[in-house]
Design goal:
Layout (H helix, E strand, L loop, with lengths): L3 H26 L1 H8 L3 H29 L1 H21 L3 H16 L2 H11 L5 H12 L1 H16 L2 H22 L16 H13 L1 H32 L4 H28 L4 H21 L6 H18 L1 H9 L5 H32 L10 H8 L1 H26 L7 H25 L1
Helix pairs in contact: 1-4, 1-5, 1-6, 1-7, 1-8, 1-9, 1-11, 3-4, 3-5, 3-16, 4-5, 4-6, 4-9, 6-7, 6-16, 7-12, 8-9, 8-12, 11-12, 11-13, 11-14, 11-15, 11-16, 11-18, 12-14, 13-14, 13-18, 15-16, 16-17
């Protein structure tokens, strides 16, 4: 546990996930180019990301079961290979159906990666380190967005569509080679803790993971916190900023890259906070949801184009959703045994991406309806059309918040039966202040004594 080799294994897994994020987010910054290349409507453009995420979300539970059965090494390597095939297909595609096939393959390969990398952490590290390392996995993996918005966009605009996507295919081949050569499922001499492979045993494991209210709390957490940032990054953020808000493309790329830097800053803090306050995780989740709703409300109701500072605030708040959604996986880890962790994590990971694909599609459909009705005055990506289309997010946030509250009540009821109670928030804050005051007094006493 916690050896140098453990960090090497984790580093390889993080690299594979970083590559997967690069493949996932590459189409979002190529959206305007794709509209021209495929002569696509807004609905058709959203279909690329919707189908990709539909495949991703649909495979999460099967992938969790496979990871529990076969381990992370083979699953991560296969995922990288499938993504390379998808980007090769997209590089050659000249029609919407051909392009969608490429994104289906990318979504399938991407689906195999994250859960498998998370499965490595409890095998190689002490449980106290896992929440923080989970955050760092998500943070470092999101550096793949920087590859999408900076070198990939530069290559796309200089070398063209084909070479840009061929370069991404080559990056996935590199991830395949590294994962196959270096990853190991568990430390030497440790027996693998895996589920039986029979259909009945798999069904029983899946049912038990779902019946655990902590798993459902994790799912609703991921559903509510993660989707808005995913919609922004993968599909509608760049068109909204450039065509709707009139932000120059270079400035829009900078705003998109802020997601990564905010994650680097707040992710480790969130991981440490979760470790110190495990009974307050859902409270933090609800605060993030509230901040996201307020940020979107401020931008969408602002008269005319929003000032740059307000768009920066929106991006900063949305970026917190990435590391915030990782709390959902900590719920899965806390309330499920190790041999069921992949399955439970797969259930959790369905949440945010299902909400994202649903929102992406409805936003694209709404934009097309407004365009065809003449509301947008001949502009597909008019600001007023975006105001209406992006408002669908509030309904998704509300549904997710209700799910969090209902599942949290069930979790706390079961905890109470085990003798674990959650004190009122005001009482917990007062107790925390008292502990800090006592600690400061002890420090002063030691200093005066010396």
């Amino acid at each position: 546990m916690d050896s140098k080799r453990a960090y090497v294994i984790w580093g390889v897994g993080v690299f594979a996930y970083l590559v997967a994020v690069t493949q996932r987010t590459s189409f979002g910054v190529a959206g305007l180019d794709a509209t021209t290349r495929f002569n696509a409507t807004a609905s058709a453009l959203s279909a690329f990301s919707v189908v990709q995420l539909l495949v991703y979300a649909g495979l999460q539970i099967p992938v969790g079961v496979l990871v529990d059965r076969f381990g992370s090494r083979s699953i991560v390597a296969i995922g990288a290979l499938v993504m390379s095939l998808g980007q090769l297909q997209l590089a050659a595609a000249t029609s919407v159906p051909a392009g969608v096939i490429g994104r289906v393959l990318v979504g399938a390969g991407d689906a195999l990666t994250f859960i498998a990398v998370l499965r490595l952490l409890p095998a190689w590290f002490d449980g106290r380190r896992v929440p923080v390392l989970t955050q760092w996995t998500g943070i470092l993996g999101q550096l793949g967005q920087l590859i999408s918005v900076i070198p990939f966009v530069l290559l796309l605009h200089t070398a063209g569509w084909g070479p840009a996507f061929l370069s991404l295919a080559g990056l996935s081949v590199l991830a395949f080679v590294v994962a196959a050569a270096a990853l190991r499922n568990q430390p030497p001499g440790v027996d693998a803790d895996r589920n039986a492979s029979g259909l009945r045993e798999t069904g029983v494991s899946l049912a038990r993971a779902w019946k655990q209210p902590g798993t459902r709390l994790g799912l609703w957490t991921h559903f509510t916190v993660q989707f808005s940032g995913t919609v922004f990054v993968l599909t509608w953020g760049y068109p909204f900023l450039v065509s709707g808000q009139g932000v120059p493309p270079a400035a829009a790329s900078v705003l998109m890259s802020l997601f990564v830097f905010v994650g680097i800053i707040c992710g480790p803090w969130l991981g440490g906070w979760v470790s110190r306050h495990p009974l307050r995780r859902s409270t933090m989740v609800l605060l993030i949801v509230g901040a996201t709703a307020l940020a979107w409300l401020a931008v969408l109701v602002y008269p005319g184009r929003a000032p740059l500072w307000l768009l920066v605030v929106l991006v900063l708040v949305l970026a917190v959703g990435g590391p915030g959604s990782m709390i959902g996986f900590d719920f899965a880890r806390t309330f499920n045994p190790a041999h069921r962790l992949g399955t439970a994590s797969g259930i959790v990971n369905v949440g945010g991406f299902f909400a994202a694909l649903l929102t992406m599609y409805v936003v694209g459909l709404t934009l097309d309806l407004l365009f065809n009705s003449g509301y947008s005055h001949g502009q597909l990506y008019a600001l007023d059309s975006f105001r209406i289309a992006l408002s669908v997010q509030f309904a998704v946030m509300f549904a997710g918040a209700v799910g969090i509250l209902v599942s949290r009540r069930e979790v706390r009821r079961r905890m109470a039966l085990e003798g674990i109670t959650v004190p009122p928030l005001r009482q917990a804050i007062a107790a925390n202040r008292a502990r800090r005051r006592t600690y400061r007094e002890q420090v002063k006493a030691r200093q005066s004594g010396s």
